[in-house]
Amino acid sequence: MTVDGEPSGSTTAPAGTRRSTTIYDVARAADVSHQSVSRYMRGMGMRPGTKAKIEKALETLEYKPNLSARALITGRSLRIGALTHETHQIGPSMIIQGATAAARDAGYLLDVVALDMGDRADINRALGLLMQYDLAGILAFASTDSTRAVFEGTDFGVPVVLAAEDDEPATIPHVHTASRGIHDLVDHLHDLGHRRMLHIAGPADWSAARNRLQAFDTAVRAHGLRPFGVVHGDWSARSASALVQHMDADDLPTAILAANDQMALGAIHALRGLGLDVPRDVSVTGVDDTPESPYFTPSLTTVRLDFRAQGRQVLETLLTELGVTTEPEDRDSAPDPPSVTVMIRESTGPAPRPRG
Amino acid sequence: MTVDGEPSGSTTAPAGTRRSTTIYDVARAADVSHQSVSRYMRGMGMRPGTKAKIEKALETLEYKPNLSARALITGRSLRIGALTHETHQIGPSMIIQGATAAARDAGYLLDVVALDMGDRADINRALGLLMQYDLAGILAFASTDSTRAVFEGTDFGVPVVLAAEDDEPATIPHVHTASRGIHDLVDHLHDLGHRRMLHIAGPADWSAARNRLQAFDTAVRAHGLRPFGVVHGDWSARSASALVQHMDADDLPTAILAANDQMALGAIHALRGLGLDVPRDVSVTGVDDTPESPYFTPSLTTVRLDFRAQGRQVLETLLTELGVTTEPEDRDSAPDPPSVTVMIRESTGPAPRPRG
DNA sequence: GCGGCTATTGTTATCGAGAACAGTTCAGAT
DNA sequence: ATCTGAACTGTTCTCGATAACAATAGCCGC
């Protein structure tokens, strides 16, 4: 690690001058009023002569606007707060990346604040800090009902976009995507002859978990079947492994659809512990397609979701809310729904012939 | 997803009042000067009578300080910018969590800005945005030499702590930790009879990769051996898998030490593709201990690092740099080095007897 | 009960930008 | 050449906090 101390002043400015150059400095150098400089910065029309003077002065002084001052007077800012959690999961992480990129494109800075969603006090402390700054808006990735309640119960004073999957599947594209993926997986397994399908769902208070469960249920029934069963994990490999370990050995499913790749991994691990082979005895699928999934043993059949596009879309929703027009281009109707691709790998195979 | 529009005013304030309450509002309500309110907020001494008046007024008005205004006049702020990348990796993600918590404890807000380190233009754009805000300091998690150069070459005007592992192992604790872990792994493998050890290193321009490689080399030579070989991956399972696939089948190592768990996973996958069993034919180890590693097939022997503690330490370094005293407590000497634990699982076993 | 101090409190200036309004300039019409 | 109005430019005020300084109030001893 390296620690850089306070850098010395630039070569042009006298050493020790800490405060950066302001529009007044520029105005003096250009021999115009500070207001003209301000107007120039905002791209307002002006006579070529003054424009040239200002530009010349700007070149010398390397002026950087002070956004605190601007925010103070305008009451608006170009910062967007993003509240999220579980950042080491591929989904949240990629969604944030997409949102960050989209924000940058629109000239906004996305502040990511990672919260410990289990700790209500922590959430409130972070929100308290955050709200004191001028934020243009807030993006809350509230995946669970309880955190969602926190956001809905708080008056932030600025537009808030709560990015959680809704239970009503009507609202937004990316709900459909995960659901569509689950449908495709069920179809795939059905084609392979599977009729006894178990779903390892996420925690019941996660809307994403409910949606995936719902999709599973619908898809299975669409084939005239009934779900073999549903159990709830906590998204972790550990939880799924424990659940599978305690299954009734005399009454096993032929296929397990886990709600994410980690739980699929845990399921495979536990099945192996039970002396069962994947996919010969039981097929297993996940959702997310983490970069590691192709290298699992066996490699995992799963659904690839376009998280980045989701993040972008959520951010654009907020921008619309803020009255920022993002798309001067064609895009006449609704944005493309993010893509879903079923990745068929080694963890799924033909259903074993019924015993007996 | 749900979109909340601009919330209506609270019940106490007249609807439509957008601007929040200021110290002037409080001062008027308490019948004191705004300066007294400011003093109260800063915890300065005052007569009990005025103090009581102010507290009473504060209760009614739910005043929140405007930190932009404060930053404008003081030139200081309570924001720390954290520049990072690869946030979906367990390491960076946990380090950020630790830093966030430490910052919160000290009353600071940590703004996490995720950068695409491959895209120089993106970095500069993000830095440009960030620097316009009043930041108390910047934490740059610059893992590669080139990004490090970017940070070192930029005058941020505020203290910057570059948190990258140094090549000189003298500077900082957490360098030692990963290295110590590698040493322990090598010892473990040596005890099992392994003499032909291959290291799958990270990219050569990552200081972390160089350190781990260096540790591997030292540890192997400490046993009077020579490294069987070193190859460089890019931290991904894919890269390690490709490297292992192209090994000379007639001249294989008995153990592979990958510089992280993902690459270990890729190595295992490729070995299996070559018809080799792990750990019977080849032992494999990783570094990081991701939550999934115990559920790999076979479960992975690896090193658990305390990333959270690392993040906390780096942030405290910055706080010290800022002149903030964080530890009123005992802690007389240097902080405890973050812990390292070797997690021995199924992927390592006795070295196979030499063929022939 | 009155100087002399110190501890509190109040008043005005300040940070760096934009808003509001007033004062110029300049082109085209008369 | 003069008027008119739009386009530009400059002055002053404002945002919400702290800094610097001035003005009190209370406390002490004589």
Question: What would you say this structure looks like, in words?
Answer:
- 2 copies of one chain form a homodimer.
- With 356 residues, the first copy, chain A, is an alpha/beta fold.
- Chain A has helices at residues 23-30, 34-41, 48-61, 67-74, 90-105, 120-131, 145-152, 173-191, 207-222, 237-245, 261-273, 307-321, and strands spanning 2-4, 79-84, 109-114, 137-140, 160-162, 197-201, 229-232, 255-258, 283-285, 302-305, 340-343.
- Residues 1-17, 168-175 and 328-332 of chain A have low confidence and may be disordered.
- In chain A, the strands form 3 sheets. Chain A has a 4-stranded parallel β-sheet with strand order 3-2-4-5, sandwiched between helices. A 4-stranded parallel β-sheet of chain A has the order 7-6-8-9.
- Chains A and B meet through strand 1, helix 4, helix 5, strand 3 and helix 6 of A and strand 1, helix 4, helix 5, strand 3 and helix 6 of B.
- The first copy, chain A, binds a DNA duplex (30 and 30 nucleotides) through residues 19, 22-24, 32-36, 38-39, 41-42, 44-47, 50, 65-75.
